[in-house]
Amino acid sequence: MPPRVPLRLPSLTAKPLTVTTLPLVSNLTSSTTRRRQSSKMSQQNSTRFEGGAQAQHNPHPDFKTVESSRPPFNSSLGITYTQTPSPSWSYGAGANHLRTPSPPPHVSINPHAPDRPAGFNYKLLISAITPRPIAFLSTRSADGTSENLAPFSYFNMVNHDPPLFVVGFAASVSAPKDSLRNLLESKECVINIISEGFLEAANSTSVNAPYGKSEWDVSGLTPVYDCEHVKAARVKEAVFSVEGTLDHFKEYDSRATPGKKSGVVAIIEGKNFWVREDAINEQRNIVDPEVLRPVSRLGGITYGRTTEVLEIPRADWEKNIGGEDGYEKIKKQKERQ
């Protein structure tokens, strides 16, 4: 495989988080189970965040022993639709207070306080901004000699016309990791969505492999070279994939270490979609979540699955609020409370 060489950027106007291993957790479970999990997680977090490395990738010294004590993965769970937490909720009523009738006070945290390590912000944000979708990014170097496959949960869709996606990299342009390096060189990628059926394989690609060593081999996943707009491969096992080209990127300065570049945000335009036939409807505009079975990221090395969902119609000003008269009535009701 080719040795690491200085990165040569294409003519492009300059305008973070791969994943590791741990248990799957259901986004929504029964109230009893949630209380038990919350108590147990609080104990784990207390131990996990006391001392140790700032960005500890494995909070369990012997993960296999910990995992063996947990119930097996329930592959029979489908997606269940439930009522909202408070079906009788009315406009102007505020929070339903399902979990905390009398919420405790908040604390203020300065992310750049002199005595606060930057790693604390990493832990805080990945445990608070949840669940996060995962971009399983396939990239290829400009000369085609090196390929990379890695998961990123600093990711989301930000527009549909044109299809735009944002991916964040906790690295600099001068010292890019493999995916960023390839993306800046070739200006191409494929965004694959991770499903439950290949979670372990996808997670394995977060390994710190040397540049030029392909995560395709590590994972055992299948590259398919049939994309219409890019040369990077899509993941055959993925239910949904997006061919993308780099629209622009911006590099950011570190606040913790002045003078150092610490992050890059890339805007990617979707050029073509790939959807498994059994997952798409006849109009080709809706993907079935029962087939997609998407996996999300939570804090630490925890993943989430979606097994319970609920629907809430979008409010209409005239129909639901009652227009100006209804709005004034809601205001008066609040004033009397």
TrEMBL record:
InterPro entries reported in the protein's UniProt record: Flavin_Rdtase-like_dom, Split_barrel_FMN-bd
Compositionally biased intervals (Polar residues): 68-79
Signal peptide from the UniProt entry: none
Residue span(s) of domain Flavin reductase like: 127-288
Keywords, in A-Z order: Flavoprotein, FMN
Cofactor(s), by name: FMN
Family membership noted in the UniProt record: Belongs to the flavoredoxin family.
Descriptive protein name: Flavin reductase like domain-containing protein
Organism encoding this protein: Colletotrichum orbiculare (strain 104-T / ATCC 96160 / CBS 514.97 / LARS 414 / MAFF 240422)
Lineage of source species: Eukaryota, Fungi, Dikarya, Ascomycota, Pezizomycotina
